[in-house]
Amino acid sequence: MSRLLALLVALGLVVGCAGPPPPPSDTLTVGVSRDLVEGPRDPYFVHASLRVWESLVELDDDLEPRPLLAESWSSSADARTWSFQLRPNVKFHDGSPLDAAAVAANVERFLKISPRPSPFFLLDKSLAYGSLRSVEVSGPLTVQFRLDEPTPMLPNMMAGFFSAIFAPSSFDANGDFVKLVATGPFQLGEWKKGEGATLERFDGYWRDRARLKTVRIKVLPDPPARLAALRAGEVQAVAELGAILPDQAAEVAADSRLKLGSQTIALSHYLFFNGTRTPFSDARARLAISLLLDRRGLVSTVLSGHGTPAVSVLHPLSSRWTRTDLAPVHDPTRAASLMATALSAAANAAAPERRPVSLVLSAALLGRAPYKTVAEILQDRAAPLGLDVQITVLDAAAYNAALKAGDYDIAMGSQGWPNGDPHYIFGRYLHSRGQLNVDRRLGAGDPATDELIDRGVREPSFERRKAVYDRLQELAADQVHLTPLWHDVALYAYRDGLADLGMDVNYRMTLAEARWTR
Amino acid sequence: MPYFGQRLVRLGLVLLLVSGLAFGLGNLAPGDPAEQALRRGGGEPTAEAIAALRERFGLDRPLPLRYLSWLGQALIGDLGTSYRDREPVLRHLLRGLSFTAVLGVTALGVAVGLGVPLGVLAALRRGGLADQAVRLLAVLGFAVPSFWLGLLLILFFALTLRLTPTGGSDGPAHLILPALTLAARPAAGLARLTRATLLETLNRDYVRAARARGLAEPSVVLGHALRNALLPVVTFAGLAFGRMLGGAAIVETVFAWPGLGRLVVEAAFDRDYPVVQGFVLLSGAVFVTLNLSVDLMYRTLDPRVRRTREELGR
Q1: Are B178 and B108 in contact (CB under 8 A)?
Q2: Chain B partners within 8 Å of A219 (Cβ)
């Protein structure tokens, strides 16, 4: 018996060595939910969150474009010619200088390989550069873009992934990576897919160098196990998209060794309606469903307060574009009246026999947002209106196929706003030829709306463009082809003693600013 | 044709059938792989972009032609490239398999190391406290879902006792909790099976004869009864190993173990058919090879099987 006890103690000591030692003061290990390094076959190699590469333009907290590798920009009066002035004295990780030729080479590579799938961000030249005709080097640090159509929002469109800059030596003749050389505050060290990566500080960085010498990224896909790793001290932070789920927030807040952080991000959650079949081909039926939902109640109970009740089809981060006077309201009485009218009109029009309302959800999103609970609430609220809502959870590909085939009535999903350009939302959802309008059978679009959208995207005057987008938000609220539910707040957590680790509106971690206070 | 040769031919036919089913069923699932690949980053691809990618993936060709072309390449060891990241499928699978095999072999070792002795103990103490405890443990092993057991083990061993890491794949210590979790169900099965077969064997005449000859009880149980009782146990262990290879996805996700299961579940969600098809072919090959190995072990363990097959062979 004593031998057995000794054996167990020895085993405990050996295994106990696996416990994490305290991290060195210049090192940080961050747990994330997904791979942030895809490798040389990906058009970006690594996610922007790792701060290995930088873009010409990035978005600030109001979703307005701000200089990064481009120091300034200007456009011709007709917004067809744009000139970008690059920041001087910026070096790539291999010591070579950033210049206009390098930027032009990156844009040409972008156009050449588009469209290229990426789990980070679809590389698409039409979304990034619109009607770009040519990119020209007009000085050592000046690049000129010439476009066929007026493009007043070009800096927005290029922000982030779409103007990522790498040293031209990073690519082969096909535009594929042969190595990763960029300008960010970190360089990519060792990485293993599905496991994680090591980032090393780039001491030649053009701004203040990163405070930490080494950052390790560890992929921990399971949410409870990710939090357990943080509590055990194996990682000192969990951040990035979906790092902490709303129902885990209370557990983090209750642990005195942990800090909970939150950041409003440019991502909103919506209901989409199949506007090509009854009952939701009738705007009254769509509005009735929207009126059934108490968005404030959803955020305070289902999301434990970690979200913003919807104010508009556009995200309220953008104070320049988003109207706050059009917030969807909660009015079950009016909902019942509207639905009764819509259903009666459908019956009079000899519409096909009433059938259950199909509400589809994508399984890929259920781990990040409480769609199932919201769907069940909607199911419950819609029953008194005579609607038998049936909830179906499909995997992402089947969900997209069902939407495309119009084999649904209501869908729930999220939409990011990565460039802060209203056309990104209106052009795709409300235009009769809009990709998402067509693909999801929303049934949106009429000549007047199309004309407004086409005018907005080309209008050089800010005031006139603002008037167009104000009107389009009204139309979106009236037509209810999609109705916003809540605007997302990303939660992350870190151990006591770590400071300045956060996330920005596009879910990128602030790794270069992170530091240990003790 | 010798027995081994016959089995090899049958193995090839089974794999051919498996590959056809994998290819056909995968391609019948709703969702376009090209569109899914383009949508992965949250983007909204144009119809032209989808068409261009479909052509690049070869999805614009008829299904039978694609199957024959894939099969031809597979025969020379080329399983194609992943739709998601354009990496060779074989590289993905071998890397995942190296992790899953380590996990599976360790879990099998744990399952056999726990399940067989517990089954023997339960059989020898039939109706006693030990028997009841083993039976209860076996029921729990079957009933508790692996994701929940995994989280309980993390809570107890990693967070409370601080004996093991919570997850990852950085060293042998990271293997302990996933192997225990994965071993729970087969260990329960082995304990029940060993108990049942040993009880049956202990009532056989030759065991009674051994006891009558005055042999010591350990020699009777271990030397005579257990060896015969182990035959179905070997079959069960072989099949359990195959099932573990295929069903480790949840355990691999909970413990961030970069194995085959996680890879394939993600590939299936993304309609990455080359990876899914390669996996089905590979796991089919592993399964039928294990089956063959178990049959060959039967020949070693049980001379009656050998003799019967030799007679049939004549």
Answers
A1: no
A2: 256, 258
